Amino acid sequence: MTVTIKDIAARTGLSITTVSLVLNNKESRISSKTRQLILDTAEELNYIPNQMAVSLVTKETKTLGLIIMDIANPFFAELSKGISAEASEHGFDIILCDTGDSYEMTMRSLKVLASKNVDGIVITLSDEIREEKMELLADFLQNHTLPVVLIERADRLVMSDCLNVNHEKGSRLAAEHLLRLGHRKVGCITGPAHLEATGRRLKGVMDVFAERGVKFRPELVVEGDYHIESGYAGTEKILAADSSVTAIYAFNDLMAYGIYQCLKDRGIRIPDRMSVVGFDDIFFSKMLYVPLTSVALPIRQMGERAVQLLIERVANRELPRRCDVLEPRLIIRESTVPPCPADPPDRKA
Amino acid sequence: MTVTIKDIAARTGLSITTVSLVLNNKESRISSKTRQLILDTAEELNYIPNQMAVSLVTKETKTLGLIIMDIANPFFAELSKGISAEASEHGFDIILCDTGDSYEMTMRSLKVLASKNVDGIVITLSDEIREEKMELLADFLQNHTLPVVLIERADRLVMSDCLNVNHEKGSRLAAEHLLRLGHRKVGCITGPAHLEATGRRLKGVMDVFAERGVKFRPELVVEGDYHIESGYAGTEKILAADSSVTAIYAFNDLMAYGIYQCLKDRGIRIPDRMSVVGFDDIFFSKMLYVPLTSVALPIRQMGERAVQLLIERVANRELPRRCDVLEPRLIIRESTVPPCPADPPDRKA
DNA sequence: TCTGTCCGATAAAACGTTTAACCCAATCAG
DNA sequence: CTGATTGGGTTAAACGTTTTATCGGACAGA
């Protein structure tokens, strides 16, 4: 049936030790004649080593676990791409666990991965996993001493390496761009208030305004939920608060699309009468009828870096804890221009 | 370090056989007292079975391989979601191999998966893999008798189950919709001519025209490459061939976006002056400024069905070869309306 | 001729399970 | 009282590797 190291030994009349030695080319003290003989018959018989057996004795599987909240979400798909590519580069395979954002599924995946003896795990955690749940999760990891890198979540409970994106910096880029263009009345449509990322992004904006001595207007900040509809609704609220706003910064691109729709319905032209900035720079933002200026996260690099951190730790568990932060960049497109003068007559010439 | 079945045996003073029997609850002839004792200590010690060891003897890993061309592509991400969900449902995990469309990587992945003893594999193949390459691949599969289901590719070389989407039917839906609305001059922007899917989609359109006795105009068919730019260029060509065309059907949504841009630049309004139909119904099509009518593929179900087929075959390798076909549906939105009368004066009232 | 080094290769234990075969005592039918 | 049955376990082999000793011989030096 399946050909094993034994078959090769039998076929060549050598011992399985010799065969194993040659196939892993350890121990140089094997005559090149024997060596070639073994290599040839292995080739001929289409020998493929049984990793189960190998792992059983070596204690390493060359497999990494990937616990992801939703593989169909472009953000995570891109992250997975980076992770997969980098892992493959280093000879690791990955077991994909899509948790659909559920805590139970996360724990189940963790057990499965431990059971399958992965060498390490990259985890993205739902925002719902906190307090008691987080504690249980941390216990499990501690218990099984599995190398882990946490994506977009630093936590004192889990003493693992982690990898974050600089949300604050991203917002700073957006805000600085807008101020530099001359905008002073800027609306913000944020993410859900309970998310850490929301707070950090908001801080970025406020800091920039403060540093530049521009008055920040809290009444122009409305909470969104990352869906397109809340971008639409948010725009209406902002306009109701102050119809002379000249720019709106949405905490993700989807909500920026909502802004586009609302402005279209109201006959307010982008970018002439309103500049718009998004966050995430998803694929479609570049092909809107007015290509969107957006803060781009280095998602793929994040995946790659996560695997690098993980593999380093697999190789050396005694490393001190590391917490990397990746920097976003601003992609400037056509949705942002200097504000149109409040009273057109002034510069009519 | 890690706790094994042996530790439990030692702790309880029983044999490892007994422990194994209880933990897998086979053999009912174990006293419930012993049973409980074992279960309790297993719990207490946080015992997690070593799947390597289990698989070594049982010959099954409860793991499926997934060879995918590009996980960052929304189509494949969605497919993976379906696959992952269904697999998880049945207690299987999946090893993800992103081949980046390369033949070499595909073969490498195949070897890795064989080596890791997956129970079966779901494969998507690059269109470049044909003839000699296909033969090598088929040989490998035959050689290792791995259960496989092939996605979107039937091949007499690989005697595996396969799963396809009914491209012809998808095109028929689009064409019928357009004809029913009254369009007679319809342009088509196809995919690359060498792809099977392109031929099948084109056939669907032509058949419908023939059946309804409407003259099909080959000069209104232009070849695209699934990228947005070719949608733009294709539109220009079609308009050059006959400026009185009233509808364009693009073989994917991205090219439809190109149509939108071109028409916008030329001041031709959608849908008043031109109806547009796409294919794929990707996420963003519903949020274009004129939501796009598009043929939707049941991608997630495809993934689910693939896993069902695979698991059935894992359970019974003697099953006859199966080849399922899933049906697309037409999502009608605002980009398609009856054609505007050729000579407005006629019906001016 | 004896001792010590190399060289080339092997024996056997170990990894953590499953499972077929077997064992012992107690119970039961006759 | 005997022989068969049953309840409750255990022994040991097997899965396919890796790896640590170990072995036998050839050859060199004394």
Automatic annotation (TrEMBL), chains A, B:
Origin species: Acididesulfobacillus acetoxydans
Protein name (record): HTH-type transcriptional repressor PurR
Domain of life the protein comes from: Bacteria
Molecular function as annotated in GO: DNA-binding transcription factor activity; transcription cis-regulatory region binding
Residue ranges constituting the HTH lacI-type domain according to the UniProt record: 3-58
The keyword Electron transport appears for this protein: no
InterPro entries: HTH_LacI (IPR000843), LacI/GalR-like_sensor (IPR046335), Lambda_DNA-bd_dom_sf (IPR010982), Peripla_BP_I (IPR028082)
The keyword Transcription appears for this protein: yes
Keywords on record: DNA-binding, Transcription, Transcription regulation
CDD domains reported in the protein's UniProt record: HTH_LacI, PBP1_LacI_sugar_binding-like
SMART domains attached to this UniProt entry: HTH_LACI
